[in-house]
Specification:
This protein is an all-alpha fold. It has helices at 2-6, 13-31, 37-64, 66-73, 83-96, 101-128, 142-154, 160-187, 204-217, 222-240, 258-275, 278-307. It has one domain: Alpha/alpha barrel (Glycosyltransferase), CATH 1.50.10.150. The chain contains 12 helices and no strands. The longest helix has 30 residues, at 278-307.
């Protein structure tokens, strides 16, 4: 058991990101009267329990094996996943907003403060270390995604200028990192197998950016459509790249499939709410079906790995 705690992965928080995203999807569909409420309630508290469990386990790892946590925090790839903790707080804030607003506000403040610290530290880490281009992968977008999540609930707790500041930072770094990633993907070696599923993270910044912009500006305008259609473009691109995902060995990074799919599903519901154009409703249901199928596959694979004792082991 001690060894399992020692090697408990920081990437486990991507599971919380995915499940809390799905809980938010169920919440949106319930409020549109498209799905029953028990799906939202059940998944919300299951995800909350899992979030508490993962926080406890990684906290225990920090107490018993601080050197391992320090190594994760100074790892060229794993450092990006620490922002998944703060993003989990922000997503739990959104998931609880309709159920328990006070708890939602507490989660949001913890998420904002922790994400700001982690985001600034991560960017400092990028600047102070010399990276070869092959170290760049879509996991670098995780701190950016967190910035764009801040306004989604933040407009209810702080002035719009506060929310827009985080949106602007997130949008700025999304564009820069995407250009770097495109250069890496086209002109350099292919992504390692375990990072191919993280290509789905490309969907998240424009999808969440669209939702955040609608919360801040409340304007169905050209910029909103730009963000939404860019997100749809990445969904279509990944469908065309389906051969890259065939016969992949399962890693926890497969959970990178889940959160971006929930983000574009919610974005489609928001687009329908505002425009009342049926195409967005149809897209929301198609994306929900894809998301649920993905969750079943990834959950089944994860349970299999746990059963075989292949989770929480030393990684290369």
């Amino acid at each position: 058991m001690k060894d399992k705690i020692k090697y408990f992965p920081i990437t486990a928080f991507s599971i919380v990101m995915g499940l809390s995203g799905l809980a938010i999807v169920f919440s949106k569909f319930y409020h549109m009267q498209w799905l029953p409420k028990f799906l939202y309630d059940g998944l919300l508290f299951f995800t909350f329990g899992l979030f508490l469990l993962f926080t406890f386990l990684y906290g225990l790892k920090a107490i018993r094996h601080f050197d391992e946590v320090k190594a994760d925090f100074n790892h060229r790839i794993k450092i990006n996943f620490f922002s998944a903790i703060s993003i989990s707080f922000l997503l739990m804030s959104l998931a609880f907003s309709a159920f328990w607003p006070f708890l939602s506000m507490l989660f949001w403040w913890v998420g904002v403060i922790s994400h700001t610290i982690l985001m600034l530290h991560t960017i400092k880490f990028w600047i102070q270390h010399n990276f070869e281009i092959h170290f760049m992968n879509p996991a670098w977008f995780i701190p950016v995604v967190g910035n764009m999540l801040v306004p989604v609930a933040g407009v209810d707790f702080m002035p719009n200028a506060f929310s827009f500041a985080y949106f602007a930072i997130g949008f700025f770094f999304w564009i820069i990192l995407f250009v770097i990633f495109l250069n890496r993907a086209i002109f350099h070696h292919q992504l390692p197998q375990r990072f191919i599923p993280t290509l789905f993270i490309l969907i998240a910044p424009p999808a969440i950016g669209f939702i955040a912009y609608m919360r801040i500006a409340q304007s169905w305008d050209a910029f909103a459509l730009f963000l939404l259609f860019v997100a749809y473009f990445f969904v279509a691109l990944l469908l065309f790249l389906y051969k890259s995902f065939k016969k992949l060995e399962f890693f926890i990074s497969w959970w990178a499939f889940t959160f971006p799919l929930t983000a574009i599903t919610v974005a489609s519901v928001v687009a329908y709410q505002i425009s009342h154009e049926m195409i967005y409703k149809y897209l929301a249901f198609i994306l929900l079906t894809m998301t649920i199928i993905t969750f079943f596959i990834v959950s089944w694979k994860t349970v299999g790995k746990i059963r075989d004792g292949e989770i929480c082991i030393e990684e290369e």
